[in-house]
Design goal:
By secondary structure, the chain is of the alpha+beta class. Helices cover about 30% and strands about 25% of the residues. The strands form seven sheets. Strands 1, 2, 3, 4, 5, 6, 7, 8 and 9 form a nine-stranded mixed beta sheet that branches. It has a five-stranded mixed beta sheet with strand order 10-11-16-13-14, with helices on both faces.
């Protein structure tokens, strides 16, 4: 008895479609990529029902003749591999599976025409059954409609999400392709979507930045840093967001490899490594990076969906990404995101007061219990004591009272304006012993003194480590620190690494260590708290992480204990020295934990806050 048989060709196509067309967004991706490969300069996408009812893709590309059209809906028929060399793929599509796979599970109609042909050609494929090619009136290019997606495989419909969710997935596909090809016009419309159009941009950095601003948000262009670095046969270029310009998800991390948008774990891991020192652990950067390389050193034939790639030398690729991003962020210096000022203004704007309750006169409330009265006589309202926000005095007459001495929480500085032309301005006050207010040529800057100095100490320690080693200070009286035995053992095991960082310790019995030397930058700090914090940092070490990243994590903890504490009064010259050092230190726009160290308010913004504009 024979048990092995050949599957029906239509059934084979439907099985293959499950790999290529997982959802409507996958079908849109395949069709738009075909249009890009055809040399289209304008692509329009329309969907209905999240793409289940209808997907329409219209392009002005090269089009197809009748013979090519008939062959295009056959499995594994492609125009993308002229020499059959899979090691040098230079197009987005190449498998020849997209059109026949979509036609196997939906109603597929194609209308196309080449520039040389007097008329166009059309074909219909319904649930895998191919109709004849017939002449038709058409413009140059191709028009593809996919109706009733997965009608031939209704079980697949059960796994789709809501129409809105599927429509958003389609929008994300178009967004990524629009970033990858800024010279092409993209348009997207349909239900559950706001009609979107990305006009074509000119070649070069400025055109790319305009396209990124349209896709990633208008604020991106003011908070981006250019990247352009080459190494051997690789080139990395694009724009990356400042560390203080971040998002809550990784959806705004875009990589394009030889024109192909990809989601690659190696590349995303490299981005995390580059931003690890300047970004909160639960936040994600905003960036778009383009990798141009010899097709022979990257394998794009990893998955049928072609969203993953594999590099011949992954370590080399990771090293390029990490070094290029770190260099770009270092060039940005002390810059912080421009959105910090907007958030500050939003926090300063007073909340809208609720409307008074019926029967309530402003400043007065009716008595809780009306007093007995003669007929026709009404008891007067009692004056209510209204609770005022902290910091506000009685309005009106308070403006005429004599000036009181400044609060102990605000230390004004009436010095010369010799630093106002500097980027961070001249210090004018210290508020609550924590924040420095500086005046610039066109606004003010508010600095968190602890966060700023923490970053400065951290960068100083890193520079010393990379140069001749961290400067150390011998303690006149070594200090004994009692710890949990596990923490003490962890410190002793890492003793050599800590000594290279300027901290010399040795065992002092069960659950105790003796500290003999400290980094000179941390002199005067609380030694016990420092040692305990370092023990906590060692407990979080990931053995798979590079040694430099692990050492940086320890230095970051050290810097926190060596920085100016909140509440410490600073002299005017100390404040101005802090501002000048911030201007000269890379990454000083954010602390070691990724929080901004300062916010800037332009004078025009302040005037709008007070209704002067």
């Amino acid at each position: 008895m024979t048990f092995v048989r050949r599957l029906d060709p239509i059934l084979v196509d439907r099985i293959a479609a499950g790999e290529v067309v997982e959802r409507p967004a996958a079908a849109v991706k395949e069709l738009v990529e075909n249009a890009i490969d055809a040399g289209a300069r304008a692509i329009e996408v329309t969907i209905e029902g999240g793409g289940r009812k209808l997907i329409r893709v219209l392009d002005d590309g090269a089009g197809m003749g009748p013979e090519d059209l008939a062959l295009s809906v056959e499995r594994h028929a492609t125009s993308k591999l002229p020499d059959g060399d899979l090691s040098r793929i230079g197009t987005l599509g190449f498998r020849g599976e997209a059109l026949p796979s979509i036609g196997a599970v939906a109603r597929l109609s194609i209308l196309t025409r080449t520039a040389e042909a007097p008329t166009g050609s059309a074909i219909l494929v319904e649930a895998g059954v191919k109709g004849p090619v017939r002449p038709a009136s058409a413009s140059i290019g191709t028009r593809i409609e996919v109706a009733d997606l997965f009608a031939a495989t209704p079980a697949r419909l059960k796994f789709l999400k809501s129409d809105r969710a599927e429509a958003q997935a389609v929008a994300e596909v178009v967004r990524r392709l629009a970033i990858a090809h800024p010279q092409i016009r993209f348009a997207l419309s349909g239900d559950h979507l706001s009609a979107t159009a990305y006009p074509p941009e000119a070649d070069g950095e400025h055109g790319l930045l305009r396209r990124l601003a349209r896709v990633l948000g208008a604020e991106f262009s003011d908070n981006a840093v250019a990247v352009d670095q080459a190494r051997e046969n690789l080139r990395l270029s694009g724009q990356i967001g400042l560390p203080t310009f971040h998002r809550g998800s990784a959806a705004n991390i875009h990589f394009v490899v030889n024109g192909r948008p990809v989601r690659d774990k190696l590349l995303i891991g490299a981005v995390r490594g580059a931003y690890a020192d300047v970004l909160p652990s639960d936040r994600h950067p905003v960036l778009a990076l383009f990798i141009d390389c010899d097709p022979a050193i990257v394998d794009v034939n990893v998955h049928p969906a072609k969203t993953e790639v594999r590099f011949r030398d992954p370590a080399h690729m990771r090293g390029l990404v990490v070094s290029a991003l770190k260099d770009a962020l270092a060039r940005a210096g002390f810059r912080a995101a421009t959105t910090g000022g907007a958030r500050t203004l939003d926090a300063l704007r007073p909340a809208t007061a609720p409307p008074p309750r019926p029967g309530l006169v402003a400043g007065r409330v009716p008595p809780a219990r009306p007093a007995p009265a003669l007929a026709g006589w009404q008891a007067p309202y009692e004056t209510a004591t209204l609770e005022r926000p902290a910091g506000f005095e009685e309005p009106g007459q308070a403006a005429f009272t004599a000036f009181a001495p400044p609060s102990a929480d605000i230390r004004p500085i009436l010095g010369p304006a010799d630093h106002e032309e500097a980027p961070l301005g001249a210090a004018r006050a210290q508020v609550h012993g924590t924040y420095i207010v500086a005046q610039t040529a066109d606004g003010i800057v508010i600095v968190d003194q602890h966060a700023a100095h923490e970053r400065l100490v951290y960068e100083r320690l890193k520079r010393e480590r990379e140069a001749a080693g961290i400067a150390r200070q011998l303690l006149l009286i070594p200090e004994v620190v009692d710890l949990d035995p596990v923490d003490a053992d962890r410190l002793l095991v890492a003793g050599k690494a800590l000594e290279a960082l300027g901290l010399a310790i040795e065992s002092f019995g069960h659950g105790a260590v003796l500290v003999r030397e400290l980094p000179a930058a941390l002199a005067g700090g609380r030694i016990k708290a420092l040692v305990q914090d370092i023990a906590d940092a060692l407990s979080e070490w990931d053995a798979a992480s590079p040694l430099e990243e692990r050492l940086d994590a320890v230095l970051s903890r050290m810097a926190c204990h060596g920085s100016v504490r909140a509440g410490r009064r600073l002299k005017p010259e100390e404040m101005n020295a802090l501002l000048r050092e911030m201007e000269a230190t890379p990454f000083s726009g954010q602390c070691n934990h990724g929080r901004p160290t300062y916010v800037e308010l332009k004078l025009a913004d302040i005037e709008r806050l007070f209704g002067r504009r």
